[in-house]
Amino acid sequence: MASTLLFETHPISTESLTPTSDCNESTPIPTLNDTFLAKTEDAFLILKDTSNLLPSPPPQELENKKRKTLSDVKVEEDLNKPQLALVQLPKGCKWCQRCGTIETPRWRYGPGGPLSLCNACHLRWKTIGKPKEGYSSTTYPPPFYNIPKRKYGKSKKLKKSKKRDDKEQKIMKLPSPPLPPAPPSPPPPPKELTPPPTPVIIPGTCTHCNTTNTPLWRRGPYGYRTLCNACGLKWSKEPNAIIEKKSPSQDSKKSHLLHHQKQYIKHGLYSVETRLVDSKDPPCAFKINLPIHHGEFLMSKAKEFELPADILQERDLGLIKGLMADREPFFTRIRSNIFVERKPQHRLDEQAVCHCLPPTEKDQSGCGDDCINRMLFYECDPKCCPCGTKCSNTRFQRKERKKGLQVFQTDHRGWGLRTNVDIKKGELVIEYRGEIISHQLCEERMCTTYVNEKNFYFLDYCNGEVIDACTKGTEARFINHSCDPNCHIEKWSLKGESHYGVFASKDIKAYTELFYDYNFSTFNGSVESQQRCHCGSSLCRGTIGKRASGIARVK
Ligand SMILES: C[S@@+](CC[C@H](N)C(=O)[O-])C[C@H]1O[C@@H](n2cnc3c(N)ncnc32)[C@H](O)[C@@H]1O
């Protein structure tokens, strides 16, 4: 038991204690015998009078000491004052004979015998080895010994410091065994033994400079891999510089830095790609790496989305409004017909010259309704037309078209074309353009490329050719059929080639859908004639497309 050890090894004088100045007369003055009376089941109360316990050293002995440290003087001063120290120890409690701690992960062997030192003091005793005096106290609390910390660095420095420490320790030897006096109250520990405040240790962050990037992590005062390379090297040379300057709890800057240096996840667990989330605001800029093979998984598992069969059917029939996301079908707009199988003709000899007179006034234009070319559906060539640049019979050459045309979704006819402005009778609304292909190629395309198409965008060209506007053309391709149309197709000739235009058959009010009669214009009437017409006209013939008689010539 600790109590037995205490009193057996250090017999204490049983003389009555001298009352201190702090004690009241009414208060009974404890004696050392009281220590035995204070014994309880769980603890010992040990009352010490340090003035009595410590035999005052002979004056000569003190005088012989050449050097005195400040702490020596303080201890001596303290010892001259009779003071009481009350120490309570739990029953069966061990304590370190050097530092007095009662907590250690492992009790170890020391100069005082087995299990007399805490783990740290044992290691220190083993490595430094001196002074032995600091490790043999059997009183509690043990006297304080100023034992230097281990110095890290070159061996020469270590040796020097050891020598110096030895000298200091010799000087600091307290008088008197058999019982080294316990200080009346725990003495203020010297600076060297004050443990540095434990910092907030963030793995992968230097505890000194907070950097997260370093080629090598080094050991520091707070353990392995707690300093970056630079700070680690600095610490090995000047340990105090690192510990003192950057004690995290004291350094307000450090806490400020920690607050701002948030640890963002820079790399995903399995990452291959990097995405910059926000590059404008530096504190918030960080990178998120997507999981590895994230796309591969989708590619391997994903399949194209398909609507349920019933909805699909209704969509194909154009019965579901809005399902097409109100985006008109894609096609390529072209400014001239594309001749797929041959070169376009450019025959100037076929160009007829009208007999119109050039306009006399500036604002007037030539080649009006009485122009012979206009009446014959020929466009004039301004180079040889008498009206020159004032000729108005050049609409196809000028790529003329009405503004305010809009593709929209109809109720039962799919997409359609309407005008948002009023159109007068006889005006060219828009030219029907596309790829000029032969009938043969058209049939081929219908069997291959357009085999799944529900809508057809063909217009009879001439001489066994067809305008295919399925992929390339103008908005004219969206004009639906009506048995009572407001527009018609006109074929115009220009330099040996034909141009087909949608012309207004009557005055058309704004926001009206445009129609022409497919019966007279479209190719592949055999297919479309089987399609039910939804023009809604009272004159509706029931089906769209050509009549059974075959391809009819346009006007
Ligand atoms: C040149 S496209 C007209 C644009 C087509 N509505 C679209 O959505 O692209 C011709 C096709 O429109 C449809 N269509 C045109 N007029 C129609 C009508 N009066 N009734 C029903 N369907 C019509 C037919 O499917 C026809 O094959």
UniProtKB/TrEMBL annotation:
Pfam families: AWS, GATA, SET. Residues 175-197 have a biased composition (Pro residues). The keyword Transferase applies. InterPro entries: AWS_dom, Post-SET_dom, SET2_Histone-Lys_MeTrsfase, SET_dom, SET_dom_sf, Znf_GATA, Znf_NHR/GATA. Residues 139-197 are annotated as: Disordered. It comes from the Eukaryota. Residues 403-519 form the SET domain. Residues 529-545 form the Post-SET domain. Residues 148-162 have a biased composition (Basic residues). It is found in: Chromosome; Nucleus. CDD domains: ZnF_GATA. Residues 349-400 form the AWS domain. Keywords: Chromosome, Metal-binding, Methyltransferase, Nucleus, S-adenosyl-L-methionine, Transferase, Zinc, Zinc-finger. Residues 96-132, 206-233 form the GATA-type domain. PANTHER family: SET DOMAIN PROTEINS. This is Uncharacterized protein. It comes from Helicostylum pulchrum.
